[in-house]
User: Fold this.
Amino acid sequence: MRREFLGVTDAFSLFGITARPIPDEAELKERYLRASAAAHPDSGVGDAGRFAELQEAYRVLSDPSARLRLLAGDDALAGRLGSPEIFLLVGGTMQAANAALQGRASATSALARAVSMAECRAAAAKVTLALEAIAESRARFDTRLRDLDARWPAVEPGELAGLASDYAFIGKWESQLREAEFKLAHG
Amino acid sequence: MIVGIDLGTTNSLIGAMDAGFPVLFADEEGRRLTPSALYFPEEAADPVVGWEALDHRDDGILSIKRLMGARIGEVDTTLPVVGRPGEPVRIQVGSRILSPEEISAFILRKLKVQAECALGGPVTKAVITVPAYFNDAQRSATKRAGELAGFEVERLLAEPTAAALAYGLDRLGEKSRVAVYDLGGGTFDISVLELSGGVFQVLSTNGDTRLGGDDFDHAIAERFGISPAEAEERKRVGGPEIEAVCRPILERTRLHCLRSLHDAKVEVGQLDEVILVGGSTRMALVREFVREVFGKEPNVTQHPDEAVALGAAIQAGILSGSVQNVTLLDVTPLSLGIETFGGLMNVLIPRNTTIPCRAGEMFANAAANQTSMRITVLQGEREMARDNWKLGEFVVSFAPAPRGQARVGVQFEIDANGLLHVLARDIASGVDTKVAIESAVEVSDEAVEKMLEDSLEHAFEDMDERVFTEATIKADEMLPAVDKALQALGDKVAENDRNAILVAAEAVRSAKAEKSLSRLKTALADLDRLTEPLAAQLIELAMGS
Assistant:
């Protein structure tokens, strides 16, 4: 659906910036704000359709995974499954976190609450460890991203698509872990 | 000319831009604040609104905003509500039955006259503020109230965003990141914004549309056995006793603040200012609380009662073109989704998405020649559809076709007012139709009634069974907790105590097996009492680790 209105060049050219793996973040944001202000329905000459398009384009360009997929084009197949060790680590951690949260939500006696509190603390420690592992992966991916950017445009679509799916996996896991971290800490 | 209105729970104000500055209009007595209070004298058609209505507070109407867009059963009120659970709230006023928006319209009419006197001419267009966390029904009701009062409602504006406008108007060149903590008479909002070169971008918003100063008053009134009016007086004076009553209510705002920061991906330390607005932020206790949560001195430069109305006037100026180079990028406070298989909510537009925004979803016929499909639209953050607020339902119509061949694309659009519009496009014909959403009430009317009848009928026979089920659930929770606790604490539990606990646990097990309600209750109470010290020890252990 998104592809229908945003081609490879469109998202970048909507903001008038050059398509590459690492766009200038500050400039992108500045242009996004200017363009959004101009297209906002309040501006008098605004256009809700174009405004929505700008929001979507900015979301894509701000997310390394979506941005790389855009640069790779439709033909590049990724088919990578992320690192299995991290997958197992995150899966186990999320299971512990959800069990602890469930226990806390259903606890009605002082004893059950105390038990669940201990479990929540233990789960929170696991979540912290998993987030550290994710941060390490992200740092490695960022190095690859900088390498692609340095070699740009002499890169293979497969390299872009591969890194895109790597980012997509840790991105999904990270947001799940962050949500669990928040709930464990603040109820 | 467009005016800006703050339609508050306790007080309302009206203003407009004048020579580049937002100003508020006063009444003939020179008062800018109009109490959102009404009193309907027996025979008169129109109510007394504002200060005079406060003399009749016992049989008048206060805090009507709390009931805007509410369904019966969703909210507690002392007003005489008419109707069945699930229906939109209606109030019995003398011989009349009025909706909250009709009642609010009287307040808006009074403000309209006030503005017309000040401006010396008719006023027909308005920006009206709403709590940022208002859902679709609450926003729609506010818009209707404006229309009933004779306004074209040009925009519904989130209150904390309005306050940020008032704060930022003379700082357009600066870049900063601020939080607005808005605790009014009946609602609480927290928003995190980035201000950059005239663009006010809301990063996240959170809140509770039924939490405010009124709750402090009620709690104080209940605690000391005094009237709400007296409670308000005591609140103003303050003191440790009052703070002890108010503190737990105030605590409820903490999670919203933390959630808003989390969603905005902003750390407390990255905020330049925490701006306080809303009448309740005058309380020393509230300021102290905000200082504690955000770790910084709150910014109290904005007038607690007037900032939101000034912001509304500025937004009115933006829309009429008299304020230039200022843009608001606001967000939708609640995730929007539809119910899917298994009663789950499928999110189409996540909360904190910049508005106006759109999302598309494709629906196909699940059986050959199926003519229609009913779609339930939800707002909220819970995983299960039933736990979210049901916005309404609509029907997608299919042309006759084999299974999966008839397809209809549905576009959900949230406009700049935060209101939902749905558009359906028949893929084969390419024809767009605006889809009418039936409020959840209209469609579930009979069902609600039947549910009520059923529940009354079976209430007594269910009672014992339900109590036993509850006790069993508690037993199932307690028994493993006891095992875990004993294991975790090891020899920290004295031999005698351990044995007593094991005996009590066994008693629970056998009572449960024999399905004896009375024995189960006694055994559970014993086990609860005996394990109480364990809970304290466990918490100590967890904190120490």
Q: What stands out?
A: The interface with chain B takes residues 1, 33, 36-37, 40-44, 48-49, 51-52, 55, 106-115, 117-118, 121, 178, 182, 186-187 of chain A (CB under 8 Å).
